[in-house]
Amino acid sequence: MMNELIPELIGGTLIGLAASLLWLGIGRISGMTGVLSSLFLWREQQRHWAFWFLAGQVLAYPLYALLGHSAPVQLTSNKTLLIAAGLLVGFGTYIGNGCTSGHGVCGMGRLSLRSAVATVTFMVAGIATVAVMNLSGGVL
Amino acid sequence: MSARILSPLVALASGLIFGVGLLISGMNDPAKVRAFLDVFAAWDPSLIAVMGSAVPVFAAFFYVSKRRKAPFCAAVFHEPKMTRIDRRLLTGAVMFGMGWGLVGLCPGPALVNLLAFEPGIFLFVLALFAGNRLAHWLVGPAR
Questions:
Q1: Whether residues B73 and B104 fall in one domain
Q2: A80 phi-psi bin (left φ>0, alpha ψ -120 to 50, beta other)
Q3: What are the pLDDT digits (tens) for B23-65?
Q4: Same structural domain for residues B72 and B118?
Q5: B47 and B111 share a domain?
Q6: Does the structure show a pLDDT above 90 at A4?
Q7: What number is the average pLDDT over the span A47-54?
Q8: pLDDT tens digits for range B50-107
Q9: Could you tell me the pLDDT band of residue A1, with boundaries at 50, 70 and 90?
Q10: Closest to B24 (Cβ–Cβ): which among A14, A40, A123?
């Protein structure tokens, strides 16, 4: 059982270490929602770290591939679904001030009740959405 | 090396390690994420291990950081100050969860997958930015 989870455990540990490095290094929370919003505030010097963080994230895939690893990306090709999902995620994470990284990893790690409530809420909403899509029998 | 040079390098390294972590764990794969959310049918619970390892690792370093006045390469810790649990937070989390369930992408993995050149990713990321700006113009930042 545990053997099958080794990639998940290594990956999760790396995510935790990356978040710790950013926090202890420059005192920032590694939340992707904050990074996204910061891109539109490029005039502000104190937001520039977000560009570097994002550059690292975007370069991870080609670097990983260059090292001979493969990482599948199995995504729907339904354009309506992709646009609806992108808008919901972009809008929702902005007004909720965080996503899986900011609330899920960092907020829960900081023992923030606000982040724990947000995390449980988006998990339940995600589970309900998948269940409804299953029930719709492929219409959605 | 001065903090001026070091802090961008810290952010770059952190983003890179974060991205590799998402790739190794399989959290970047929308199909795996949707299987994780598919609790009532073909449930694949393995992604619990990603959260289950990332959270305690960060929690430990965060706890240790309490003994320091400042981070290594910056003047202050920017700890989020909001603690409110209100309708805005819950509405946002529900909307995010719905979008997450629809295709299996959250912001981090979407950006990590950008250079995988999977055709749907660009459309999703474009809509992601549009949603972020729409919320900024229509609702505005939380105070």
A1: no
A2: alpha
A3: 999 999 999 999 999 999 999 999 999 999 999 999 999 999 9
A4: no
A5: no
A6: no
A7: 96
A8: 999 999 999 999 999 999 999 999 999 999 999 999 999 999 999 999 999 999 999 9
A9: low
A10: A14
Do B8 and B54 belong to one domain?
Answer: yes
Taking alpha carbons only, the member of A136, A29, A134 closest to residue B71 is A29
> Whole-angstrom Cα distance, residue B139 to residue B7?
32
Query: Is A90 in Cβ contact with B108 (below 8 Å)?
Result: no
When pLDDT is cut at 50, 70 and 90, the band that residue B2 belongs to is confident
What is this structure's pTM?
Answer: 0.96
Which residue range forms the structural domain that includes residue B133?
84-143
Asked which of B28, B59, B79 is the last residue of a domain, the reply is B79
* CA distance to partner chain A, nearest, from residue B80 (Å): 8
**Are residue B40 and residue B75 in the same domain, yes or no?**
yes
Q: Are residues A17 and A23 in contact, defined by beta-carbon separation less than 8 angstroms?
A: no
Quick one: CA torsion of A18, B56, B107, B94, rounded to 10 degrees? -160
CB–CB of A109 and B55 under 8 A? Answer: yes
pLDDT at A2: 65
Are B89 and B67 in a shared domain?
no
Give the one of A20, A28, A107 whose C-beta lies nearest to B57's C-beta: A20
- Please give the DSSP secondary-structure letter assigned to residue A102: I
Please state the φ and ψ torsions of residue B115, each to the nearest 5 degrees.
-90, 15
Residues of chain A found within 8 Å of residue B40, distances taken between Cβ atoms = 127, 131, 134
For chain A, the average pLDDT equals: 95
One domain for residues B65 and B91: no
Q: Do A91 and B135 touch (CB under 8 A)?
A: yes
- Paired tokens of A32: 């992707």
> How many structural domains does chain B have?
2
